[in-house]
Amino acid sequence: MVEVIQLHHIAINVTDLDRSKEFYTKILGLKEIESPNFSFKVAWYDLGEGRQLHLMLVPDSSTLRGTTKVVPNHGHFALRVRSYKNALETVKEAGVPHVATPDSPAPWPQLHISDPDGNIIELNAEKLD
Question: 0.90 exceeded by the pTM?
Answer without folding.
Answer: yes
